[in-house]
Amino acid sequence: MSDARKEMVIRLRGVMNSVGGRVLHDHVDLDVYRGEVLGVVGGSGAGKSVLLQSIVGLRRPAEGLVEVFGKNIMDTDEAGLRELQMRWGVLFQEGALFSSQTVAENIQVPLNEYTKMPQRLKNEVTAMKLSMVGLPEGTAQKHPSELSGGMKKRAGLARALALDPELVFLDEPTSGLDPISANMFDTLVRGLQKSLGLTVFMVTHDLDTLKATTDRVAVLVNGKLKVGTIDSLRDESDPWIKEYFSGARGRAALPN
After folding, report:
1. From the CB of residue 144, how many other CB atoms can be counted at a distance below 10 Å?
2. Which of 109, 116, 155, 217 has its CA 20 to 30 A from that of 174?
3. Can you name the residues that pair with 228 across neighbouring β-strands?
4. Cα–Cα–Cα angle for 124, 187, 212, nearest 5°?
5. If residue 167 lies in a helix (H) or strand (E), which one and from where to where?
6. Distances, alpha carbon 228 to alpha carbons 31, 126, 175, 215, in Å
7. What is the rounded CA–CA span in Å between residue 195 and residue 92?
């Protein structure tokens, strides 16, 4: 299907962000289509997470248009933004679980925020989401401090899926994980994306994750976005992109 016929879930036009006088996003454009997994990569401090924050309404760009599900985030009132937030889930870096709450209480945060669901039903939803991400039922009453790094990520993903979203944002989902745990998490994400029909916007630095999960990749370099498949980006002339995809580590993760 041509891009013109695909349903656009995220649309950025002319987005500009700067931090401390340094331009992170120099009037960037980006389209994310329904049902795809888009990976966003870039050097340290390039503004990958800031771009995510701009899309979910946590940061207002200095210039430009940010549309999600056809609605302009920056012109949407509080009620409209809440409606949009019910259609997406976010897994922040390190899982971002509340340390004083149990896993069940963490998963139920969005249920409490956006619904009037009775506690019995919230408990059933919690058990279902834990099962979806591969965590045993007994995990529900544990606190984050009792979990391994991989389990924290899975619990954070369960919370992101609590409201049955159409769109999921993942911020460095495999950072800090050993290779085996990272590979298992990649498999989980791709499996859930296919079974639930999710659209996934994923910030990552992990080449193996890109190879295992993404349909397209957006590279943030010198304030601009270069978007393509892994194979097409390996032929880019930009030195950073070329080294990232075709350097020694890139060749190891992405063989010819």
Report:
1. 20
2. 109
3. 217
4. 145
5. strand 167-171
6. 11, 37, 23, 9
7. 22
- 79-101 residue pLDDT tens: 998 999 999 999 987 668 999 99
Distances (CA, A) of 137 to 47, 124, 127, 141, 150: 37, 11, 6, 9, 16
Q: What is the CATH number of domain 3-253?
A: 3.40.50.300
**What separation in angstroms does the CA of 198 have from each of 44, 132, 162?**
28, 14, 13
Residue spans per domain, the chain? 3-253
Q: Quick check: pTM over 0.70?
A: yes
Please return the burial class of 194, using the count of CB atoms within 10 Å of its CB with bins 0-12, 13-18 and 19+. exposed
Q: What confidence tens digit (pLDDT) does each residue in 194-227 have?
A: 999 999 999 998 999 999 999 999 999 999 999 9
Q: 3-state SS of 185-212?
A: HHHHHHHHHHHHCCEEEEECCCHHHHHH
Closest CA to 97 of 40, 44, 157: 157
Cα 159 from Cα 113, distance rounded (Å):
12
